[in-house]
């Protein structure tokens, strides 16, 4: 039997009624002759509640226990989905990550999937089970402890299963009917894309478009998984949603495919550090050893042998970054006057593989922001993206102005 992977996100399983609706969709695929692996998220809001409980109990929590708690939301949905399917006379069984087992690294709260043996579930399919409902977002470490894959990780579970079981397709059911040129909640003019290239989706996801977890796109690209994003609320059809595919499979595309944004960025500046060879190495080694994921970097003009060094990092790592540079200063590794953290910033990015062959995208982006009176604090570019850091209060304005200027509401 061909295998299909269907993943339902939090809002798609938020109530018993929605679980029933999702189960009906699964039933339709089973009737077509598929063996289905259903990956479920926790009911919407559940994971946030669990994270809140952990933080309240233990602010500097033991990450192993964090994972034990926050992985539990998915188990409830998996059992309920299996029961719902059984009520519909569809032979179904639930599986927690460790039962499969989804083997991961031991990096608690950000573990990576290393291996998913297919034999256990395949044996059940051979016995007549039609649907394996698997808790998304979780796995088991080499030490035998429960791990989680980072927020939004059920997408990655789904793609990893599709690769391991050589599924015909991996369908990601969510609360929007596909991937848009930008988050439709921020820009009413956002347009649904029929297809998007893996590389563009990878950039959009890593720059903040949470419709797919970045790692899931990486895996789909590497293992050539047919990945589709579609709505669990709307009527189903064979070409519904957005297909994430190779760029060769897209006939026409705009120079800029989409605009992404991220609210949880902060800008940090070390004021007055000695401008000498090795200073950047010392600062960023200290940050890296302190577990800080630095994103953008600028070194300001040097005056009288002193300079300012600025970087951006996730807001929840600011305290860690402050500690890392303070420790390095105490050890005499670096010297600076003060460290300033600006947590009221946002990152806005334009993404498109067309930028490889078109010039002027950056100039246009900066002109658009300037015309809106938005000051750019930091800039980074790569082959297919340009990102700027701006004051957070201008984020929506910037996204909409860029969406208009690059005419993303119109198809190429
Ligand atoms: P799920 O719970 O189903 O995993 P998520 O909330 O993780 O759903 O992801 C879906 C959300 O992603 C949408 O509701 C939308 O607000 C947001 N989003 C951000 N950028 C985009 C985009 N470019 N296209 C579609 N949705 C986007
Ligand atoms: N429930 C987890 C989260 O909210 C994983 C997921 O839904 O993908 O992050
Ligand atoms: Mg998600």
TrEMBL record:
InterPro entries: AceGlu_kinase-like_sf, ACT-like_dom_sf, ACT_Aspartokinase, ACT_dom, AKii-LysC-BS, Asp/Glu/Uridylate_kinase, Asp_kin_monofn, Asp_kinase. It comes from the Bacteria. It is an enzyme of class 2 (transferase). Keywords: Amino-acid biosynthesis, ATP-binding, Kinase, Lysine biosynthesis, Nucleotide-binding, Transferase. Its EC number is 2.7.2.4. One of its GO terms (cellular component) is cytosol. This is Aspartokinase. It comes from Roseobacter cerasinus. The lineage of its organism: Bacteria, Pseudomonadati, Pseudomonadota, Alphaproteobacteria, Rhodobacterales.
């Amino acid at each position: 039997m061909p295998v299909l992977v269907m993943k339902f996100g939090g809002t798609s399983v938020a109530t018993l009624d929605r679980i029933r609706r999702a189960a009906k969709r699964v039933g339709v695929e089973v009737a077509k002759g598929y063996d289905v692996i259903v990956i479920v998220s926790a009911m919407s809001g559940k994971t946030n509640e669990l994270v809140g409980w952990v933080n309240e109990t233990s602010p500097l929590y033991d990450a192993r226990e964090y994972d034990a708690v926050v992985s539990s939301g998915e188990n409830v949905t998996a059992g309920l989905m299996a029961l719902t399917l059984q009520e519909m006379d569809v032979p179904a069984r639930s599986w927690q990550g460790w039962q499969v087992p989804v083997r991961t690294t031991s990096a608690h709260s950000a573990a990576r999937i290393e291996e998913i043996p297919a034999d256990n579930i395949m044996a059940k399919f051979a016995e007549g089970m039609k649907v394996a409902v698997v808790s998304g977002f979780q796995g088991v470490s080499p030490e035998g402890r429960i791990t989680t894959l980072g927020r939004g990780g059920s997408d990655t579970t789904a793609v990893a299963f599709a690769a391991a079981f050589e599924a015909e397709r991996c369908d990601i059911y969510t609360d929007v009917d596909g991937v848009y040129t930008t988050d439709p909640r921020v820009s009413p003019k956002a347009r649904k894309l029929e297809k998007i290239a893996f590389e563009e989706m990878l950039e959009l996801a890593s720059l903040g478009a949470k419709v797919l977890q970045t790692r899931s796109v990486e895996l789909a690209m590497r293992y050539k998984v047919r990945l589709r994003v579609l709505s669990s609320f709307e009527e189903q059809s064979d070409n519904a949603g957005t297909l994430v595919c190779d760029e060769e499979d897209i006939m026409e595309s705009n120079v800029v495919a989409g605009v992404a944004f991220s609210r949880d960025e902060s800008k940090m500046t070390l004021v007055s550090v000695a401008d000498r060879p090795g200073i950047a190495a010392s600062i960023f080694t200290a940050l890296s050893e302190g577990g800080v994921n630095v994103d953008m970097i600028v070194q300001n003009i040097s005056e009288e042998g002193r300079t300012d060094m600025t970087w951006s990092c996730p807001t929840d790592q600011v305290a860690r970054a402050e500690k890392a540079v303070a420790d390095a200063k105490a050890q005499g590794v670096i010297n600076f006057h003060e460290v300033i953290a600006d947590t009221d910033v946002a990152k806005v990015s334009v993404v498109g593989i067309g930028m490889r062959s078109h010039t002027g995208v950056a100039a246009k982006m900066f002109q658009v922001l300037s015309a809106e009176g938005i000051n750019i604090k930091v800039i980074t570019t790569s082959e297919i993206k340009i990102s700027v850091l701006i004051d957070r209060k201008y984020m929506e304005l910037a996204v909409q102005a860029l969406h208009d200027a690059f005419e993303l509401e119109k198809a190429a």
